[in-house]
Amino acid sequence: MTSTGPDTVHVRAPGKINVFLKVGAIDDTGYHDVAIAYQAVSLYEEVRVREASDFQVEVSGSVELSRVPRDGANIAIRAARLLAARTGYRGGAHIEIEKHVPVTGGMGGGSADAAATLLACDALWSTDLPREELLELARELGADVPFAFTGGTAIGTGRGDELSPALAQGTFHWVLALADFGLSTPAVYAELDEHRARHAQDIFPADPRPTVEANVLQALRAGDPHMLADAMHNDLQAAALHLEPSLSDVLELGEQSGALAGIVSGSGPTVAFLAADVDSALELQVALSAARLNVVRATGPVHGARIV
Ligand code: ATP
Q1: Which of 103, 117, 265 to mutate to test ligand 1, by most ligand atoms within 8 A of the CB atom?
Q2: What's this model's pTM, rounded to 2 decimal places?
Q3: Cα–Cα distance between 77 and 95 in angstroms, integer?
Q4: Which listed site, 83, 96, 163, 275, has its alpha carbon 20 to 30 Å from 230?
Q5: Active site residue 144
Q6: What is the spatial distance between Cα 149 and Cα 303, in angstroms, rounded to a whole number?
Q7: Is 185 in the pocket of ligand 1 (CB under 6 A)?
Q8: Domain ranges in the chain?
Q9: Which CATH number fits domain 8-165: 3.10.20.30, 3.30.70.20, 3.30.230.10, 3.40.50.1100?
C-alpha cells in the first residue's frame, strides 16, 4: 500500500557497494578506522512520509522483509525523531518504506532509509535545515548514512563517514547475488579481530589510519571495469567467508561464469560481481540464475537521496 498526494513527500535513496574496504587496527574504544570507496548503485529505497500525530512505519518491497523492525527500532523512525528533537518539531510522521535493497546485505539499505527519511521529513515539516546540518544528523544515525545522502562515488575515512567525492566517469555494470540469510556487521568485525589476534605473529599489523589505494582511484577516474576488477578489495571478506563458507562457492561460480571479479559487499552476505559491459552482465545474470541464485543487476554510480 502506498500513498501519493500533495501531503506526501516521496524520496528515493540508493543502496551502495563498497568497491574497496580496508579496516584499520582496533583502537582503545573498540572501534576501527576504515578506508572505503563507496559507489551508489541503482537499487533504490522509496520512502514516502506524511503528517501524523505520532511516529509510525509501514514496510513493503521486493526483498525479504522479516528482519525489518516495525517499531521505534526502525532506523527511519529514529531518523524522524532525531530531526524532530533537533528542530523542536512537535508532530510525528507516517513513514512508508518500499525496500529494494537486501536487508542485512551489506548494501546499506537501512542507511538509505535513514537518509531518505531525514530529507523527506525536513521537506514535509518545512524545517529546512541546511544540507550540512542534515549531514551531521545523518552521521549521528550511522557511519553509512551520510553516503546515502550524497551518493555517486566517494571515499569515506574515519568511521567511513568523513566523505570526500571521488572523480569517476562512465557506468559500471554489477550483478548482485543476494543471500537468503543476513550477516551481522558487528559479528563480521569480531571475526576479523579474532583472526588478527590469532595470527598477530604472522601478519603485518593493520595500519591504524588506512587509506584507499591509488589504483582504485585511478580505475574509478578512468571508468575502466578491468582496472577496477584488479583493484577491488575488502578486508572483511575473509571474515564473512569464514562465517558463511557457502559464499566462496558463489564467488567461484560468478568468476567462472564471466565476471571480471567478485567481492563480498561490506560485511556481506551480498556478493557483487563486476561485469565488463551490459551484455556480459546479462549473460552473467542468466548463468547465476540458472544455478538457482537470487541475482539482480544494477549500475553505478547513481545519485544520492532525492525528492521525487
Ligand atoms: P551496512 O551495509 O550499512 O552495514 P546492511 O545493509 O548490512 O548495512 P541494513 O539492512 O541496512 O544492513 O540494516 C540491517 C539491520 O538494521 C537489521 O538488524 C535490522 O533489523 C535493522 N534495521 C533497522 N531499521 C531498518 C530498516 N529501515 N531497514 C532494514 N533494516 C533495518
Answers
A1: 103
A2: 0.93
A3: 8
A4: 163
A5: yes
A6: 9
A7: yes
A8: 8-165, 172-300
A9: 3.30.230.10
